[in-house]
Amino acid sequence: MNLLLAGLEIIDSSSQSVACQCVTGCAAVDCGDHRVESLVLPARWDDCFSPLAALLDRPWDAVVIISEKAGDSISIERIAINETDVSQKDAIGRRPRGKLIEPAGDAGYWTTLPYRELASKLTAHTFMAVPSHSAGMALANYTCYRMMHELVSQKRGIPAGLLQLPRNRSAFTEEDLKRFISILLETLDPRQLSDDSLEIDLQRLSSRMRS
Fold first, then answer.
1. What's the rounded mean pLDDT across residues 175-190?
2. Are the C-beta atoms of residues 161 and 140 closer than 8 Å to each other?
3. First vs last Cα of the chain: how many Å apart?
4. Phi and psi (nearest 5°) for 102?
5. Which domains does the chain have, with CATH numbers?
6. Considering the entire predicted model, what is its pTM?
7. How do residues 57-93 score in pLDDT, each as one tens digit?
8. What angle do CA 38, 39, 43 make, to 5 degrees?
9. Burial level of 116, CB count in 10 A (0-12/13-18/19+)?
C-alpha cells in the first residue's frame, strides 16, 4: 500500500517534536512491498497545510496526520470541526485569520480511519490508544479539517485522519517505530479493509437469510 504520514511540528521550537520524529522514523523502516512517505508540517496557521495539499492528489491508499496534545494515551480523533481558537498563537506568534476554517465548508468531517480497530491494535501492542471526540481547535484540528475537506472535494474515499501522541511521550525507539508502522499498515491496507468489509457484508447477508 501507499501510505503518507504527515507530522505536525510543535509550537515550542526549543523542544523536539515526537510526532515528527515518529513519521520520519517510520518512513525509514523497511516495510517490504509497502511504500511509506513522511512529511513535516510547520506549526504556522498560514502554511501548515500547504506541504500536505501539494501531495494529496497522488495515489495514496491512506493519509495520517500525527500531532501531539496533553494526555496519557494516543488519541485517534473521530472528527475535525470547522472552527479555530482565534486566541491560539502559532510558532511565529500569529493567530488564525478567522474563526471558520472554510466559511462555506461543512461543520465537521468524520475521520475515515477505522478508529476502533486501530485503537484496539495499538493498545494490544503496548501503545495505549483511545478514540477521541475532540481534536480541539488548534493547528492539528485545522490541518485535519483542511485535509478532509480537500479529500471530499476530490471525491477520494480513502482512510484519512488525525492521531495525537501524548505530549510528554519519550522519543520512539527503533523497535517502537517498527511495531507502530506495522500496525498502521496492517490496519489501513486497502486489501485488508476490503476483506473486512466483505466479511461483515456476508455476516449480514447470512443473518438476513436465517431470519
1. 96
2. no
3. 39
4. -125, 105
5. 2-210 (3.40.630.20)
6. 0.90
7. 999 999 999 999 999 999 999 999 999 998 989 999 9
8. 145
9. exposed
